[in-house]
Amino acid sequence: MVTALRPKPGPTRSYHFPGFHDELLPSGIRLVTAPIAKLPVVTVLVVVDAGSTNDPAGKEGVAALTAGTLLEGSERFDGAELAEKFEQLGTSVESGADWDSAFIKITVLSGQLEEATRLLGEAVSSPVFPEREVERAKAERLAEILQLETEPRGLADEKFSEFLYTQESRYSKPDEGSAESVSALSRKDVEEFYRSSYRAGSTTVIIAGDIPTDEARALIRRAFQRWPLGRAPDRPLIAVARTTRKSIHIVDKPEAPQSELRAGHVGLPRKHPDFFPTLVMNAVLGGLFGSRINLNLREAHGYTYGASSLYDWRRGPGPFVVSTAVQSEVTALALREILLEIDRIRAERISEEELSLARDYLDGVFPIRYETTAAIASALATLVIYDLPADYYDSYRKNVRDVSADAVLQAARSHLHPDELQTIVVGDARVIRASVSDLSVGDLHVHSS
Amino acid sequence: MGLHGGQFTTMRIPVETFHLDNGLFVTLSEDHTTPIVAVNLWYHVGSANEKTGRTGFAHLFEHMLFQGSAHVGSNEHFELIQRAGGTLNGSTWLERTNYFETVPSNELALALWLEADRMGELLPAMTQEKLDTQRDVVKNERRWAVDNQPYGTMLEKMQELVFPPSHPFQHSLIGSLEDLSAASLDDIAQFFAMYYTPDNAVLSIAGDFDSTDARKLVTEYFGPIRIGEGRPMLPPMNLPPVFGNRLREVVYDNVSLARLFMAFRSPVFGSEKYYAASVASAVLGMRKGSRLHRSLVRERQIAADVGAFTFDLAKGTDILVVDVTARPETSVAKLEEEVEREIDLIHREGVKEPEVKRAIALIETDLLASLQSAGERADRLSMFATYFKRPELVNEQADRYRSVTTQRVNELISERFGEDNRASLLYVPKEGVESESVRAAAAGAD
Predict the structure, then answer these.
(1) Is the pTM above the cut of 0.90?
(2) A186-200, A356-370, A435-449 — which is least confidently predicted?
(3) A21-223, superfamily in CATH?
(4) Taking a contact as any Cβ pair under 8 Å apart, which residues of chain B between 9 and 38 contact chain A?
């Protein structure tokens, strides 16, 4: 017999987020270094304030296209040569843009770091954006958009953003641009975006891994000496809801075996003072396997393989969204349970047990999140992008532990808005229409996909 | 302690092993750099062990293992680990099922106790109601990941195409909705008694722990579990090195872009020749500098995306797959023709030294980067212990890749990439699915 006696935890060993050094180089570039001597591997992450919210109106997708073609040709090498040179060094290379920044990330064994970084500096300082490669990247993006039409999860996410935010909001359109906006982009747009945004004052280089700070500094100073001064232009962000009236949109997919369901509203910006209570509140509501929404929909009812809720933290107020995929026949039943859970967490204080589960998880899992150089570099990028204090990671666990059940209730009442809920269902309208219209989820709109 | 190595030395993690009297094989790898520890269990059972008419059973069973055991309530396993600040999951594959958690190091005992309780005493907690719910969850997993997902049927259609009928790897891993409906509590009990025994499992612990303490805990919790009563042998799984003829299946599906998966029988995981095949697959499809990316995506622009991978099967034969997604304006015939042409070319002329060097360098960086994670280290220890009884193979991987020569890769290619060893699984958009406006825009942007 296995003993019935549950083991007690041993004494905790302390953990500190890796120490890092933050400085401004004479070139105006910000450098963040985190020496970690565990394995001979290093991640270099270049973060530029040139994300999709910086797309000029009508040019949606240009930030992503610029980041995506940055390594497709420099003054000395064409795109194929660059890829070959990086990869001969065993470098894994990634570049792209999300809402708040553009990034170029390499991970390489420390023995090859110097050469890989020099190549990186050269490539991103003198990109030529060859016409052919820009057009190819556009065509590949258009292929991706076409794929979405048959990919219910991606389609549901995209439709949710579209119906959530006002049309003037950058958030209402796909971060990498729509078929219409991408088709209209040119090589010149990319080059102009690069010239105006990729500036020293908007750039941070983060190095995490097996290299001392002094060597990292020397390396980056040499590799990025050609970076132009100045800052990327500020672009005001509109992020208001399209409507505050509850409504439900069905995107019709005849004969779909499941409904992809999204329900939510405009959430909070990353730097909101209620960040921690809201984080804990969401963990109880739908952020964990053991959260109310998942246990209800999956474990109690078997409606789904999984259900979760999320505040998508961005500089501006990103969405709060509950996501799941359920068998078509139970769409309305599942949606009703989601609404009940949102009401319930706003109506009464969560139990001590639920509170401790969420807090203990967020507190305890902290060191597990930062095992790799890539994860540490991303965590440091978060500090830079959202302008968080240097001691953010040192005080994170205390901030989580300090959240009370009252604070959670307060966060739920302030930051969950069931009266403004927008619901999107990608599924078979014939099967689900009648049953969802019996719920009080607002005006019903059916769209053909 | 610690992990040492570098590009010019060999990277090594410490590996200790021991057995319990009940046959449990235990591997330990200490590293005190971060106060976390990974616990990882591999059971040597997967969909290959399923009986006819019970497809999907190994995977359904994996779900049931989270439904509680003698001293653990339903879903309490999840709750206790998350409450401890840990992460956890399980996964099922053709020839194994694994369960894993990473926890703060002071919670090692909890993770071990939970795994022991469900290995030793699952059945007292099983009920019809739990089975019914998990069956519904798995059916929804199937709808989500397979039926309502473009190309989601790839794995099961590929298995069906490349393995002969009645071969243990031939049937669907997630199973059919009918077979899932037929699974009974009795099946659960039998399956458990047969396969979830200590002598059919490997337990690995990696991270911040003391070896003496860990041995004591493992012995205390897993020691009392009874050894199994034997398992039926898998039928012979060996297959000839090549298919012998062209295999081809066309799937008209709810997809926007045509996509070709071309498979080749290849040497079993872990064999000398496997490493040459793995390098060949990286030469073909790993990242932007790969053959197929360079020619089909960058130069000829007929593909939107390419990749290549191996299934890493350790029994009978492995499968190497080349995966090419067409651009919208590329006709299905053109897609097939161009991929064929590339494979013909490589089969005729082989690959060059720099291509092999590139592939090995990329593989080595990925290998080292992944070993940063305690969970990955534990999983690889379990894998090498399960398949070869040699967890220390984890330390030989970089060397084995580095010793692959261009000549070996070309021998492999010459043996396995011929017309007698190609199986094409081709997804074609159903009529009327594509949106004309986006298609026109895509063509215009070319």
Answers:
(1) yes
(2) A435-449
(3) Metalloenzyme, LuxS/M16 peptidase-like (3.30.830.10)
(4) 11, 33-36
